[in-house]
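Board notes (copied after class):
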Amino acid sequence: QVQLVESGGGLVQAGGSLRLSCAAIGNILSINSMGWYRQTPGERRELVATITSGTSTNYTDSVKGRFTISRDNDKNTVYLRMNSLKPEDTAVYYCNARVTIPLGTFRELWGQGTLVTVSS
């Protein structure tokens, strides 16, 4: 069984920082892109940042210059460093990964979600 395990959410004051981590575990042959999405009640899940296997990155405009996505391929782990947090960054953050498992099967995985709350 393959899955994503997230950690690192919590409560922080505006202007503060947090780092989210997400590890892909299980029998995985390769990981293509990894990324972070977020969702608030009543809203659609939105992309925050993605990183390819070649470490090309993409960010939604609202987090550019504040958030940094990175990955450790040896650990099958993706990170999201969030600086200068704002109350509008409050959301449940979900990790995403597109992986290849044995027999060449492609899977898209989602983490369980971790709550980030930014107080004003």
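Comment from the instructor: The CA atoms of residues 40 and 49 lie 16 Å apart. The longest strand covers residues 91-101.
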